[in-house]
Amino acid sequence: MSEELEKKLNKREQYKARLKPYDYYVNEFETIDFDSLGEGDRYYLQDFGIFNTDFLEDEFTIRLRNNDGGHFSAKDFTFLAKLVDEYDLTLVITARAGFQLHDVYSDDVAEIWHKLNDNGLTTWQSFGDNVRNIVTDVYDGVSRYGRIEVHPIIKEMNDYIIKNPKYVGMLPRRVSIGISGNAANVNSFFANDLYFALAKKDGLYGFNVYMGGKNTEIAQDADIFLREEEVFDFFKAFVETFYTHGSRFSRSKTRLFYMIESMGLAKLKELIEDIYNKPFVSAGELQLEHVDFEEFEELRDGSYGFCYQSDFGRLKADELREISDFVAKEDLGIRIGTDQNIYLLGLKDKTVPFASPALSSTIVACAGNLCPYAVWSIKDEAAEYLPLERIYNNRIKVGFSGCAKGCGRHRHTDIGLIGLKTNNFGATDGGARVFIGAEHDNGQSVARQLFSMVPFVHLKATLTLIIELFEASKEKNFQLYAHHILNNYSEDFLSLWHLYNLKNKTALALTKQEQQLTQEEELALLREHFSDFTLVEDDMKKTVSHLVKELWTVAGEDPHYKPPIERTNFR
To answer: HSE-up of 9 (CA within 13 Å, CB side)?
Structure first.
């Protein structure tokens, strides 16, 4: 590579051009001084599961790769419990069904890392520019909705990529992959860069391919159908194509999404097909349906799966021991889900000797204040600011991100939140951006913004109103509510409708619309149902801005939410 071209590469690529991450591991890893890391060290270490920032020099995070399609053993849990106790660590489940160890100090990094990798666990390619955890549904191979067991495919993909010197840390950016052979999944996978979704063509079950998803975008239908035995060859061709043709310049434009945006999906398919070395078959019929899973779910063989709802991803050593002891005694399976919960498989009946610590089965939360980028402590504040029982009872999917990076997948859920700080509301400096209405099961759309900022002290009342309006709609689930109602109104109208309900302490429900209303029709509805509605400067956005400041500028004590005094459906 010429010196001139190397200068145009983003900083991480400049390091890779000088020394490949695998060679860094072979030649330098064992002699690293974790008390005095350089910028390059921090980049390289991510490829092996170690994360650190220059503004928290003594604190590290170690991430475990889920290298077995979500499967863990009682032995793994017992080992992790011992490690957490021995080093006084904080353990969380990630939104990609892995584990992260926080509060690791520099003196202990190397020792902990070796213990993990020497005891049947791996940290390789869990951060950095790699193929990250390949995720699937927790009920893979055992669900009543299962058609293809994908665990063997995941193992084949992982075995190919995990320590391949060519690819370790050498992709232009991270690649997230999801695959499921179940018609109903606990969580949607359309936020992945590459998603193999259950489909059927000519009477045969296989997979439709979707590409270019990320935390704020839905993966696009690539119009490709693969048989079960073809997935691995496609995976190899895809990885090589991204490795060879992906951009390595502006770091903000290196995800697969931008590659598709730049060259077009047709060109990307052409490049992959050239390596795949046989023509693609057009997509089959997607085989996905909405199912609300229960705490105890009956499995295909008549046994039960149990969802242990974690404390929004956090796990204590005692919990791990209690679960592992029970699993070993009853000879059960353990799987970790992308919903950050633990699933015990093979129960003879609907009983377990412990209770879940939280109502979190439909909530995905990022690491919160355990991550240096998050601006609020999600895992502590969830219980305070979310109406958890109503969320749980209605099986509403909530994505909870501590910053705009979106690790809580806030735009791929029924209700999404991003933690923010602002001085726009007087003394209140914390709050959330609110999104609603993703049609995520089938990858139809991401959630749309309802409010750019809701102060914490008003968040519970706002979310409660959103849920009350859904309940009043009588729709079977929130996605149908989004499809039939929310997504046929503009964002500004929905903001104003919720704001005037909050202002007047009412819960006037919206009705179904066959198509998107015009602005004039929306304004007529607002004037009809809210006698105090006033349009500011003939502009709905300015009206939203005016009203949120009127309602949410906090002075004095925090307001307490009072239930609406009226609930009416208009016709």
So the answer is: 18
